[in-house]
Amino acid sequence: MNDLSRMLAHSIVTSQAASVGPETSKEAHRALVNYIGCALGGADHPAMDITFDALGGFSGPGAAGVIGRPEKVDVPFAALLNGLSSHIHDFDDTTPSNYIHPTSPVASALFAWAAATPVSGRDFLHAFALGFDTVTRIGDATYPNHYKAGWHSTSSIGVFGAAVAIGKLMGLNEQQMLWAIGLAATQASGLRDNFGSMAKGFHPGHAARCGIEAACLARAGFTTGTTPLEGPRGFAAVTSGGLLDAANFTDGLGTSYRFEGNTYKPYPCGIVIHPTIEVCSTFHDEGLVPDKIKAVEVKVAPLVRDLCDLRPSSGLQGKFSIYHAAAIGLVRGQGRLSEFTDEAVSDPRIAAMRDKVTAVADSTVGEDSVRVIITMDDGQKIEKFLGASLGNLVRPLSDAQLDEKFLNQVGVVSGDQARKVLERCWAIGDMKNVGDLVQACVTG
Amino acid sequence: MNDLSRMLAHSIVTSQAASVGPETSKEAHRALVNYIGCALGGADHPAMDITFDALGGFSGPGAAGVIGRPEKVDVPFAALLNGLSSHIHDFDDTTPSNYIHPTSPVASALFAWAAATPVSGRDFLHAFALGFDTVTRIGDATYPNHYKAGWHSTSSIGVFGAAVAIGKLMGLNEQQMLWAIGLAATQASGLRDNFGSMAKGFHPGHAARCGIEAACLARAGFTTGTTPLEGPRGFAAVTSGGLLDAANFTDGLGTSYRFEGNTYKPYPCGIVIHPTIEVCSTFHDEGLVPDKIKAVEVKVAPLVRDLCDLRPSSGLQGKFSIYHAAAIGLVRGQGRLSEFTDEAVSDPRIAAMRDKVTAVADSTVGEDSVRVIITMDDGQKIEKFLGASLGNLVRPLSDAQLDEKFLNQVGVVSGDQARKVLERCWAIGDMKNVGDLVQACVTG
Asked: What are phi and psi of B35, to 5 degrees?
């Protein structure tokens, strides 16, 4: 199909807020609750201070507050910072159909925009739903080629969602929206070589910022090619080996929003090592003594081993280490933020346990499953299999669990402020001005 | 070779200014003369005003002048604007070994930096040579895969040159330089779908800006992966089908600079249609009457037809139209800026002539050659073949021709100012502070 980009532009431009039904609204609220918690949780990460040090001097007039921070900066820079904080702990949401973290790039742009420009909750939610849906459609239509090629699709595809969401709030016309999509496509970037480093967190922030600037340039009349998604030198041809499944992309375009495949993480790390943490934590809770374990064999899907075959030397690398996942479960019975710090990675008991772990790619094991086989010093073997871990589509986090996750990670604000923010997040669709929520998330 | 990124970082960090010999210095000066002329020539293009309208409000404190403009803006934004102006007319230099325009992304970052921070001509020239060389090495080592995939490599590879050049001026250490390369890699972007639109000009500006920010972040300690160029999920694997010719990349790394393959354009358009303009202008000068021409057949290399098979409706599209190239040569005998305006593209005589032109891919014709066969109304056939057009490596523009090109396009400054700037460009390596040159290029 040689007009997908224009179809997308048309669909976004003509969409009405009433198209966001109750189910979409509900799931969008869950995604935003989870997002704000993660952004607050990452707001004091060293990568944030480094970014302020490096780029703060270039910021324009301080129009926008940043979630969890005292500084006010220009809108695109605020988007970059929101994106970084919300993804740096790898605790944000995931759509397993394409392994994208769809909310971070879109919501980071939107909250930065709303911090400086009045936006009603209804319009905000509509723009968010459109941005999220766009990311998910492009992600689904180019999966697995795009991701397997080595793109960090949260960034390289997230940028489209940020651009159309902001473009919608601006009221771009169809031609302008097409240019915004073109400018998003031509800034699409982000390499998986950076998994385990700060640059992974930079990616959705960069996407959010580029998306905002794409919409701004398009509104002002900056022209692009006409086939950014589907052209012979467009996004899919260049980055996804030409894969752009038009039937998948257009299925329900303009009438439904793809929120039903979103998941929320109980552990702040790569989603594919969640089953390992859960199973190993169960061993721990059952009283298995770490010192008496001789060897741990973890059987996972090939993709999981490919993604998480890291022997970590930093907390950020620990988030992509199947060995670390097994070790923290067995030694601590937990997978909290404090299990993914530099200190936890260098904890001698955890490091010793990691050395006992081997990972085997097994194509009979699902990507959300794991089989763990423990050999004790006395030769005894114990085995557990987990089909789907907590947070998975078939075992979703409840609203109460999302609340708990939120409150457990938002230490940059006081308990009272945290509960107030949480309450507002659950009612964002009814807000008169979403800027008030950002204001409530600002510190200092 | 699994340590190319670190080798590059090491080479840049340890390089001494004395390594820039007289031949490199000479060609670097020619490149910078050509660059400043192009940046002044594009400074009043509508795309520049649009970009100011769109993004000017986000600019930080006005530390940096912009070439050919009255505004002062933050350094990364100045880099974006310099990149846009210097490339928007497609008049900047080209290395035919990889079809990159290497100077624009590198020099745009450097002049923005020098506008705000004192830099000696010697250090500036050294950093420029390193940036140019880095772009050319990565370009050569990934050609043709990277370019043929559909990347606008001036942007997607240019970003590396900007990052290492600015990183060199900052005095980054090897670890920081590796991070700068990592942050460049992960922002690498730019799709050929945009050829013929303003977004093509945006690309080197975006690369320049991203390169500056990569260096700033790296200096502050922002971490990345360790194998941004050569890793299994690094730049070459993800964008170039894994092609990264290590022998090519490392040949002379640290001891010589790849300036010998650079060329300068006599016509402001895609380089591969230059032979067509030249041949058709010769027909015109020999008195061939356009109205008596029945048909024009242009035989070009397959790449040329692939790149320039556009029936244009704007001046920017005309720059990538083999049909327009033939038409302006035959009708006007010229290929100046005024042949690539919207007006020229809609000129009825030129439009009528374009309709008579067909282009045939012929693999026996070189990419810098053309065979033009004219059929007159009376049935007479005339044929000309050109092996290499003016500006080509074997027919380089002389210094005097570069001066003429410079003075012909810098209308945003007065004649006196233009000659003063030109003189300074030729002596940039001896300047105490390159910021003085930017100051001389500022208008208003």
From this structure: -60, -50
